[in-house]
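Hi Q.,

Before the meeting this afternoon, I wanted you to have the 2-acetamido-2-deoxy-beta-D-glucopyranose prediction in hand. No need to reply - just skim if you have a minute. The sequence and ligand are here:
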Amino acid sequence: MIFIIFLLTLLSHSTTNASVLDFCVADLSSSQTPSGYPCKKSVTINDFVYSNFNSGNTSTNFFKFSITPAFVNQFPAVNGLGLSAAKLDLDVGGIIPMHSHRGASELMIVVQGRITAGFISSDNTVFIKTLSKGQILVLPQGLLHFQYNAGRNKASAYLTFSSENPGSQVLDLALFGNNLSSANLIKSTLLDPAQVKKLKAIFGGSG
Ligand SMILES: *[C@@H]1O[C@H](CO)[C@@H](O)[C@H](O)[C@H]1NC(C)=O
Ligand SMILES: *[C@@H]1O[C@H](CO)[C@@H](O)[C@H](O)[C@H]1NC(C)=O
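Predicted structure with the ligand bound:
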């Protein structure tokens, strides 16, 4: 009897969690809700294919990196599936500055060159490693992390995320790319006023 009740509990639990649809390709013409986009009415196999990862994108930004995202806004098929991908290309000397993804863990699969990557746990322990082609690093959800090219040639990696919309907060931009006042920044970081001014100029901050 207890066993049957246990089975019934399991069964009802799994049916409440079961997805009612096979898939829900995002209808990007509607707006996103906390549970994702509404479903596109008619889909074909081509909706499930993403073809925009080229090889060796060159960066134009300060940090010499290029990210090509295949998140839900670029690849609507991942809507509701809790996963997405991106291609990372690092020029010689390129770096992805310290950042975090509130909504996703990340796998970095190195496919070219050598990449040093690391993350900082919430007790402020540093975990860092240089990886070469074929190696994978996991970057746990929500933790600050960074990647840089550790070789003498271009480096690239495929990234996968445990969310269709991982979100990204870059530490430098959060601090120096908005109108948080210099007085506050100097107080809260103990940086010199000249450093704060310099970093605000680089990252587009004001105030
Ligand atoms: C990288 O390549 C993709 C696909 O061609 C393109 O959409 C994206 O803008 C490129 N990024 C840079 C920084 O060149
Ligand atoms: C900072 O910017 C926000 C909008 O981005 C604005 O609402 C706010 O008034 C600004 N604060 C100051 C002190 O300029």
